[in-house]
Amino acid sequence: MRSERPFKRSERVENEIQQILGEIQTQYVDLSDLGFITITHVKISPDLKNLKVFFSVLKRKKSIENIQIAMNKKAKAFRKYLGMALRMRYTPEIKFYYDDTVAFAQKLDTIFHDLQSDD
């Protein structure tokens, strides 16, 4: 009898990749010139060959567009170290995207705070 797993293989791979990318960021790839970068979530294609990595930035030192460009320039280094840590046939191509959900949440929080102070 086969044990049911709580989620699909792609979700397990995404979780593992997110953890590995966090380790790569702290140990091998210097991102301090961009600000405090946090990898918020990862989305992998069904064939496991393409990877979308979403990040947020605290205390940014450049514009979001420049940070995203710089992150995508460093994608080759991330892919190199990811390939060494993953036990998969193919190392996925990495593309970085800015995740604006943190900024959006802060904006909503400010709006709600302003509404409460008006009452």
What does it look like?
With 119 residues, the chain is α+β, with helices and mostly antiparallel strands. The chain has a single domain, classed as K homology (KH) domain (GMP Synthetase, Chain A, domain 3, 2-Layer Sandwich), CATH 3.30.300.20. 49% of the residues lie in helices and 20% in strands. The protein has four helices and three strands. Strands 1-2-3 form a three-stranded mixed sheet. β1 and β2 form a beta hairpin. α1 packs across α3. The longest helix has 19 residues.
> In total, how many beta strands?
3
Molecular shape = globular
Strand content: 15-25%
Distance from first to last alpha carbon: 60 Å
SS class: alpha+beta
Helix-strand string: HEEHHEH
| CATH architectural group | 2-Layer Sandwich
Major sheet: arrangement of strands: 1-2-3
Oligomer: single chain
The radius of gyration over CA amounts to 17 Å
Number of helices: 4
Number of domains: 1
CATH topology: GMP Synthetase, Chain A, domain 3
Bin the helical content.
40-55%
What's the pLDDT, averaged over the residues? 86
Low-confidence stretches: none
CATH superfamily caption: K homology (KH) domain
Structure, briefly:
This protein is α+β, with helices and mostly antiparallel strands and 119 residues long. It is 49% helix and 20% strand.
Describe the protein's topology.
Layout: H1 9-27, E1 36-44, E2 50-58, H2 64-73, H3 75-85, E3 93-98, H4 101-118
Parallel strand pairs: 2-3
Antiparallel strand pairs: 1-2
Helix pairs in contact: 1-3
